[in-house]
Design brief:
Elements lengths: L1 E9 L5 E4 L5 H7 L3 E8 L3 H11 L3 H9 L5 E5 L2 E12 L2 E12 L2 E8 L5 H8 L2 H4 L3 H14 L1 H19 L6 H21 L1 H11 L11 H64 L14 H22 L4
Parallel strand pairs: 3-7
Antiparallel strand pairs: 1-2, 1-3, 4-5, 5-6, 6-7
């Protein structure tokens, strides 16, 4: 909880030069005018965020959003700084967990605030530190690396949902109806909707950064990097749309197969009801209390009636069998 990392980097060399205590950030930045800091926070409390706000002059509305959580992904400019909200997604066993990351970016700082389920950004930091040439762009490149990491983590989630949908196809086309299959399809649909709500706003964020962000934070030299993220967001958007369409078709097919199965049962019940109607009708005639009835006094009347019933039932059975009602 709280401060995970607080590291200073030089824009001249693009390399890390010091691990900094949060209370000494101002002194470190004052000592080297070409330096910037990258601070990583995980579920900080209000006093810690307030301390960071005072240290860097963060806008109170942005800090308020970071404390409230459950914000829509967005990018906003507050004077000479940027505030970006992104939704993160990761796989935990068979469950998809969503979290949030709030990113404050200025000319000399990057502050990430992770809330909820989120992969650590240590791999992003390692990647950035291995690329000092790009790190000379300063906080803008760090921002790119963070957004790229978030977007790239949508792909395994989408792929896992696709594999899960493929596995459900066996239950969809099973001979027997499984009520649980509908439940699984509904849960899958809910996960796709949540992933869509997380991924789609990234297109607007990238467009904002490419066309409206301050050049001191997002230099023109790294705009191609953000175009690459925008391309990734389009790919994940297409993947989600494709899976949503497949899921819709799967749900329609499942309901159609259920209806077909019910129709088959109704046809069989109707067929047997029709077959049983023949002996029922004949027996009902002879169950009437009338004295003068056909063949009532005939010695072979009973066997003849049974034979007619049997032949009638067999004839109707064959007709229904040929019609594939039985």
């Amino acid at each position: 909880m709280g401060v995970v990392n607080c590291v200073a980097y030089s824009r001249k060399t693009g390399q890390k030069f010091a691990d900094v205590d949060l209370d000494n950030v101002s002194e470190t930045l004052a000592a080297d005018e070409d330096s910037f800091v990258w601070i990583g926070l995980y579920e900080p409390d209000a006093p810690l965020l307030q301390h960071v706000q005072e240290e860097f002059g963060l806008h109170e509305l942005a800090v308020e959003d970071a404390l409230r959580q459950k914000q829509r992904p967005k990018a906003e400019a507050y004077g000479d700084s940027l505030f970006i909200v992104v939704r993160t997604a990761r796989l935990e066993k068979d469950d998809i967990c969503f979290g949030e990351t709030f990113i404050f970016v200025g000319a000399r700082y990057v502050i990430t605030v992770r809330q909820g389920a989120s992969l650590t950004y240590s791999t992003v930091r390692t990647h950035c530190e291995k690329n000092p040439k790009q790190m000379r762009y300063g906080p803008g490149y760090v921002l790119y690396a963070l957004l790229d990491f978030v977007v790239d983590n949508y792909f395994p989630v989408a792929e896992d949902l696709g594999v899960y949908l493929h596995a459900l196809e066996q239950d969809i086309f099973a001979d027997t109806f499984k009520r649980q299959t509908i439940r699984h399809l509904y849960d899958l649909k809910a996960d796709l909707v949540r992933l869509r709500l997380a991924a789609n706003p990234m297109q607007d964020i990238c467009n904002f950064l490419m066309h409206h962000a301050d050049a001191t934070i997002v230099p023109r030299g790294i705009l191609p990097y953000f175009r690459d993220i925008h391309d990734h967001t389009l790919r994940i958007h297409d993947a989600i749309d494709a899976q949503s369409e497949m899921l819709r078709v799967a749900m329609d097919v499942n309901l159609a197969l259920v209806s077909v199965g019910q129709n088959e049962i109704v046809k069989r019940l109707a067929s047997w009801a029709a077959i049983l109607a023949i002996p029922t009708m004949i027996a009902s005639f002879y169950g009437m209390n009338f004295e003068f009835m056909p063949e009532l006094k005939w010695h072979f009347g009973y066997p003849a009636a049974m034979t007619v019933m049997l032949l009638g039932c067999l004839w109707l059975y064959r007709r229904l069998k040929r019609a594939k009602w039985l």
